[in-house]
Design goal:
Its main location: membrane. Keywords: ATP synthesis, ATP-binding, Cell membrane, CF(1), Hydrogen ion transport, Ion transport, Membrane, Nucleotide-binding, Translocase, Transport. Produces ATP from ADP in the presence of a proton gradient across the membrane. The alpha chain is a regulatory subunit. F-type ATPases have 2 components, CF(1) - the catalytic core - and CF(0) - the membrane proton channel. CF(1) has five subunits: alpha(3), beta(3), gamma(1), delta(1), epsilon(1). CF(0) has four main subunits: a(1), b(1), b'(1) and c(9-12). There is one protein chain. The relative contact order is 0.11. The longest helix has 24 residues, at 370-393. Helix content is 38%, strand content 18%. The protein folds into three domains: 24-87, Elongation Factor Tu (Ef-tu), domain 3, CATH 2.40.30; 93-368, P-loop containing nucleotide triphosphate hydrolases (Rossmann fold), CATH 3.40.50.300; 373-490, Lysin (Up-down Bundle). The N and C termini lie far apart (73 Å). It contains 14 helices and 16 strands. The strands form three sheets. It has an eight-stranded mixed sheet, sandwiched between helices. A six-stranded antiparallel barrel has the order 1-2-5-4-3-6. The protein is α/β, with parallel strands linked by helices and 491 residues long. It has helices at residues 2-15, 148-153, 172-181, 199-211, 229-248, 260-273, 287-295, 326-334, 343-347, 370-393, 401-417, 427-438, 450-464, 472-490, and strands at residues 26-32, 35-39, 49-52, 57-63, 67-74, 84-87, 93-96, 104-105, 122-125, 163-166, 188-195, 218-223, 252-258, 309-317, 337-341, 360-361.
Length: 491
């Protein structure tokens, strides 16, 4: 390494030529609330990086006739009005590479886990254009989340953008964590971005990832609630650039933005401080394009580009279930589907509280395995019919025998779909329980017996070694043998 540095120094000395060099130097006019107004930089452009004499750093965020508005990314106590400012030569970026796996960093790439700075050989800008249409491929491979509801009825494909939406405290982050944990043996690198969260929530998330062995193949980007608003704004772009680097190398990645509601509020705060004209709900007019630039970078590349993919799971918060609010509707229109969590389902004990009727995956079905797709289609139809029929029972209406049977089957299915958090399930088990249900093997079972039976079925599937491509007859034989054993044990 020393010889290489010496060689670089000698090459630079040989190429050096004495000449007149002119550099602009501005001065800080005012500073406060994470914003610095700078004068004397006539060639400054949007997104340029500014270096301050005291060691602070900022990014150009607004231009006026006389002044430059910049968001602070690093601030020292010595930063005051009158501090000298110069333009930095590079655009804003971070080092990227495999050394980021297992690390916790801030949006500038600095470590937050008491470890040494990551030794990354590559560097990538935070703001990059999304891949061209000619570089993209159709979503054709599934991304398994380990959730019974998602992997069967609302499937996600690698390269898809799927929105997690719902009120606070309904389990949006838990679903995202389950998905990350389930990638342990799937050869998928994960990036988890925490935006504006309390330190206690950040520590809990990191510890969960570490305890379940998910931190080994993940990078956590943290911008706490107490950090500068400029860093909170950059956090999702940092996570995207890290995942994009692996995608360009032909790898599969998953990036979670938790959450973009806080990011939107941060962008609104910065815009109002910079005196930009407000729009709907006081958000600036370009908030849509900010999130579109971010999420459009998630895609599936074709074979000529390496065949990598980046799947995005943005999280957004609603207030009292209002899905038609400004930021949620923006993100719904950008993404390829949404997973909606309902408070009534949560309070009734159905968890994860995913509303099947309001949730949709527009392109994930293309990536489903044919066996899963066939069984899930039959099962989803039965469940939706059950939800409609159950409404009639609330009025005390008398039902025909066929309707009563459909309601009994639906209640059993609802018990099957319940799942504890941080307990992702294999896709082979998903296929097994759908075959058991679709073939009517649980029609005589009481709902309270379902969870015990599912635990036994899961153990039988794991021991069998069956794969998704095995004939359906083998799966049916396993299910019948398991049910006979379970019935004998009860006797």
């Amino acid at each position: 390494m020393n010889n290489e540095l010496l060689q670089r120094r000698e090459d630079w000395l040989r190429s050096y030529r004495p000449q007149l060099r002119i550099r602009e130097q501005g001065r800080v006019v005012s500073v406060g609330d994470g914003i610095a107004w700078v004068g004397g930089l006539p060639t400054a452009a949007m997104d340029d990086v500014l270096d301050f004499a005291d060691g602070s750093r900022a990014q150009v965020f607004d231009l006026t006739g006389e002044l430059v508005g910049a968001i602070l990314l690093r601030e020292t106590r010595d930063l005051t009005a009158g501090t000298a400012v110069r333009l930095y030569e590079k655009k804003l970026g971070i080092p990227v590479g495999d050394d980021l796996l297992g690390r916790v960093i801030d949006p500038l790439g600095d470590p937050l886990d008491d470890g040494a700075a990551p030794e990354c050989s590559d560097w990538r800008r935070l703001e990059m254009p999304s891949p061209a249409i000619t570089q993209r491929d159709f979503v054709h491979r599934p991304l398994y989340t380990g959730s019974k509801v998602l992997d069967t009825m609302i499937p996600i494909g690698r390269g898809q953008r799927q929105l997690l939406i719902g009120d606070e405290g309904l389990g949006r982050s838990s679903l995202a964590l389950d998905t990350v944990i389930n990638q342990r043996d799937q050869q998928v690198y994960c990036v988890y971005v925490l935006i504006g969260q309390k330190r206690s929530a950040v520590v809990t998330t990191i510890e969960l990832l570490r305890d379940y062995g998910a931190l080994d193949f993940s990078t956590v980007v943290v911008a706490e609630a107490s950090t500068l608003p400029g860093l909170r704004h950059l956090a999702p772009f940092t996570g995207c650039s890290i995942a994009e680097y692996w995608m360009r190398r032909g790898l599969h990645t998953l990036v979670v933005y938790d959450d973009l509601s806080t990011h939107a509020k941060t962008y609104r705060e910065l815009s109002l401080l910079l005196r930009r004209p407000p729009g709907r709900e006081a958000y600036p007019g370009d908030i849509f394009s900010v999130h579109a630039r971010l999420l459009e970078r998630a895609t599936c590349l074709n074979a000529e580009q390496g065949g990598g993919s980046m799947t995005a799971l943005p999280v957004v918060e609603t207030k009292q279930g209002e899905i038609a609010a400004y930021i949620p509707t923006n993100l719904i229109s950008i993404t390829d589907g949404q997973i909606y969590l309902d408070r009534e389902l949560f309070t009734s004990g159905f968890r994860p509280a995913i509303d099947i009727g309001k949730s949709v995956s527009r392109i994930g079905g293309r990536a489903q395995h044919p066996a899963i797709k066939w069984e899930a289609g039959r099962m989803k139809l039965d469940y939706l019919q059950f939800l409609e029929l159950e409404m009639f029972t609330r009025f005390g209406a008398r039902l025909e025998a066929g309707m009563e049977k459909a309601i009994r089957r639906g209640r059993v299915l609802r018990e099957i779909l319940k799942q504890e958090r941080l307990a992702p399930l294999s896709i082979e088990f998903q296929l097994a329980w759908m075959i058991v249900f679709n073939d009517g093997l649980l029609d005589g079972v009481e709902p309270q017996q379902v969870q015990d039976l599912m635990a036994g079925l899961q153990g039988r599937v794991e021991a069998s070694g069956l794969q998704l491509d095995d004939p359906r007859e083998r799966w049916v034989a396993l299910a019948q043998d398991w049910l006979s054993s379970a019935a004998g044990a009860q006797k």
